[in-house]
C-alpha cells in the first residue's frame, strides 16, 4: 500500500515537473528517455483523491504535494497556458497529456514523430480521441460544457495526428491499420456528427471563439485535415482513400458540407471549408474506381428551403456550384490579372522569393494573392477544384463524360478548361518563380 502510494506521489511530482518545464518557454531538453517516461505517466490516470484513499498514513504528505502541484498549475494558468486543465481534478495522466500536446504543437522535431509512434504515444492519442468521441456521440442531445470540453480535447489530439501524418507514409499507415482501422470509424462518426450539428448552431461572427457552433466547426475542420493527410497518395496509391471512401455516408456528408453547410458558418471560413472538402473528395476518388462510382451515383444534398424539389444528382449540383463560383471569379478578374501576369510590386519582389519549400512558397504566394485580389480570388480556386474533381471523374471514361456534358453550358467543357488554364498559369508562375530562385 505504502509503496503504491509512494509511486503515485512520485509520478505526480514527475508529471508536474515535466508539465511546468513544457509550459515555460525555457527549452525543455526533450530526449527519448524523457518521452518514454512521459508516455509511461500517461497510463496512470490516478487522481489525488484516489491516491489519498489508497494510503491512509501519508495523507498529510500527499495533501501537501497536491497543494503544491495545484499552486504551480494555477500559476501557469494565470500566465495564460494550459487553460484546459481542471485544477480541481488534476491527474498524473492529465498532466502528462498536457505536456505531450504542448510539445507536439511547439518545438518537437521530425524525430519526435517517429519516437512518438514507436513508444506508443500515437496509440494513446488515438485512444483519447476514441474515448472522447464515444462520450460525445452517446450523449449529444444538448451540448453541455462537459461535452464541449471533450470535443475540444479531440480537436487538440487531432492536431497532433494531423502533424505526424503530414507527408509521412509509415505513420499514416500505422494509424490506418491500428486496431483494424478503429480510428477511422470514430472519425467518420465525428465527421457526420459535426455535419449534422453545425446547421443547428449557426454562427456568423468570426470573432466568436467559444460558442457551441464554433467549437463544432473547428473540430470538423481539423477532422477534415486529418482525413486529407490520411488519404494522401504515395506512388499513385492511397490506402486511406480506399478505407475512408467505402465507409457509408462519407461522400454524402462531404457533399452536404460543400453545398449546404457554408450557409451556417462565418463568411471568412467558407473558403477554407470548401477547399478542404474538395481536397478530400479529390483524394478519395483520384485512383479509386469504387469511390468514383459512389460520387457519380450520389444525390445532391437536399436544400432546406425546398424539401419537395426533385432529386438532383450530385454532379448536377456540383456543376451548378462551379458556374456560381466561376461567375463570382469573373468579377474579380480585373484585379487579379495584374498578379497573374506576373506584375509584382516592390514588396513582393523582395520578400516572396526567398528560399522556401515549394509548398510554403505556394502557400505564401497564394496568401498574398488572396489578400491583394480580395476574397473574390477564392472563387477561382474553389471553382478550379471542382474542375479538377470532375476531371478525375471523367478521365478515360466516355460514358461519364457524356453524363457530365448534359449539365454544362453549351454542352462543352470550355468554361471549365478556361478556368483551369488560369489556375494552371498561376501555379506555373509561382513554381517558376521558385525555380528561378533556386538557381
Ligand atoms: C508539426 O509540428 C512541428 C513542431 O512541433 C512544426 O514545426 C511543423 O511545422 C508541424 N507540421 C505540420 C505539417 O503541421
Ligand atoms: C497534412 O496537413 C498539413 C497541415 O495541415 C498540411 O499542410 C499538409 O498539406 C497535409 N498533407 C497532405 C499530404 O495533404
Ligand atoms: C503515377 O501515374 C502517372 C500517370 O498515370 C505516371 O506517369 C507515373 O509514372 C506514376 N508514378 C508512379 C510512381 O507509379
Ligand atoms: C461551348 O459552349 C459555349 C457556351 O457556353 C459556346 O459559346 C461555344 O461556342 C461552345 N463551343 C463549342 C466548341 O461548341
Ligand atoms: C510555365 O512558366 C514558364 C516560365 O515562366 C514558361 O516558360 C512556360 O512556358 C510555362 N509553361 C506553360 C505550360 O505555360
Ligand atoms: C516526420 C516523419 O517522417 N516521422 C517518422 C514517421 O515514420 C517514419 C518511418 O519510421 C520515420 O522515418 C519518420 O521519421
TrEMBL record:
<dbReference type="Pfam" id="PF07814">
    <property type="entry name" value="WAPL"/>
</dbReference>
<keyword id="KW-0732">Signal</keyword>
<feature type="signal peptide">
    <location>
        <begin position="1"/>
        <end position="22"/>
    </location>
</feature>
<dbReference type="InterPro" id="IPR012502">
    <property type="entry name" value="WAPL_dom"/>
</dbReference>
<protein>
    <recommendedName>
        <fullName>WAPL domain-containing protein</fullName>
    </recommendedName>
</protein>
<dbReference type="InterPro" id="IPR022771">
    <property type="entry name" value="WAPL_C"/>
</dbReference>
<feature type="domain" description="WAPL">
    <location>
        <begin position="1"/>
        <end position="430"/>
    </location>
</feature>
<comment type="similarity">
    <text>Belongs to the WAPL family.</text>
</comment>
<dbReference type="InterPro" id="IPR039874">
    <property type="entry name" value="WAPL"/>
</dbReference>
<dbReference type="InterPro" id="IPR011989">
    <property type="entry name" value="ARM-like"/>
</dbReference>
Amino acid at each position: 500500500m505504502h509503496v503504491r502510494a509512494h509511486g503515485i506521489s512520485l509520478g505526480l511530482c514527475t508529471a508536474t515537473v515535466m508539465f511546468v518545464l513544457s509550459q515555460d518557454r525555457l527549452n525543455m531538453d526533450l530526449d527519448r528517455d524523457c518521452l518514454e517516461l512521459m508516455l509511461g505517466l500517461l497510463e496512470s490516470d490516478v487522481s489525488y483523491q484516489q491516491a489519498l484513499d489508497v494510503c491512509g498514513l501519508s495523507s498529510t504528505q500527499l495533501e501537501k504535494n497536491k497543494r503544491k502541484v495545484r499552486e504551480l498549475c494555477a500559476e501557469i494558468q494565470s500566465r495564460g497556458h494550459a487553460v484546459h486543465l481542471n485544477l480541481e481534478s488534476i491527474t498524473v495522466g492529465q498532466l502528462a497529456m498536457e505536456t505531450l500536446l504542448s510539445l507536439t504543437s511547439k518545438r518537437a522535431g521530425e524525430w519526435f514523430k517517429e519516437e512518438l509512434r514507436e513508444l506508443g504515444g500515437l496509440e494513446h492519442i488515438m485512444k483519447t480521441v476514441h474515448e472522447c468521441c464515444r462520450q460525445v456521440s452517446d450523449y449529444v442531445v444538448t451540448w453541455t460544457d462537459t461535452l464541449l470540453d471533450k470535443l475540444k480535447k479531440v480537436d487538440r489530439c487531432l492536431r497532433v495526428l494531423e502533424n505526424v501524418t503530414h507527408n509521412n507514409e509509415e505513420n499514416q499507415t500505422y494509424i490506418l491499420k491500428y486496431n483494424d482501422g478503429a480510428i477511422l470509424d470514430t472519425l467518420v462518426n465525428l465527421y457526420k456528427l459535426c455535419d449534422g450539428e453545425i446547421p443547428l448552431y449557426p454562427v456568423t461572427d468570426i470573432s466568436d471563439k467559444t460558442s457551441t457552433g464554433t467549437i463544432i466547426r473547428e473540430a470538423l475542420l481539423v477532422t477534415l485535415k486529418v482525413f486529407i493527410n490520411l488519404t494522401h497518395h504515395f506512388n499513385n496509391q492511397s490506402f486511406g482513400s480506399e478505407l475512408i471512401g467505402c465507409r457509408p455516408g462519407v461522400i454524402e456528408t462531404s457533399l452536404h458540407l460543400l453545398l449546404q453547410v457554408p450557409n451556417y458558418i462565418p463568411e471568412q471560413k467558407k473558403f477554407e471549408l470548401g477547399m478542404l472538402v474538395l481536397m478530400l473528395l479529390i483524394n478519395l476518388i483520384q485512383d479509386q474506381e469504387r469511390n468514383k462510382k459512389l460520387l457519380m451515383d450520389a444525390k445532391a444534398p437536399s436544400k432546406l428551403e425546398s424539401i419537395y424539389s426533385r432529386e438532383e444528382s450530385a454532379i448536377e449540383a456540383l456543376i451548378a456550384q462551379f458556374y456560381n463560383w466561376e461567375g463570382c471569379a469573373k468579377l474579380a478578374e480585373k484585379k487579379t490579372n495584374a498578379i497573374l501576369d506576373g506584375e509584382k510590386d516592390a514588396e513582393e519582389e523582395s520578400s516572396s522569393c526567398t528560399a522556401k519549400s515549394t509548398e510554403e512558397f505556394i502557400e505564401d504566394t497564394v496568401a498574398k494573392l488572396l489578400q491583394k485580389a480580395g476574397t473574390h480570388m477564392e472563387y477561382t480556386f474553389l471553382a478550379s477544384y471542382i474542375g479538377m474533381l470532375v476531371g478525375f471523374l471523367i478521365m478515360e471514361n466516355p460514358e461519364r463524360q457524356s453524363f457530365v456534358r448534359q449539365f454544362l453550358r453549351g454542352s462543352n467543357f470550355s468554361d471549365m478548361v478556361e478556368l483551369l488554364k488560369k489556375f494552371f498559369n498561376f501555379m506555373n508562375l509561382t513554381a517558376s518563380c521558385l525555380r528561378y530562385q533556386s538557381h
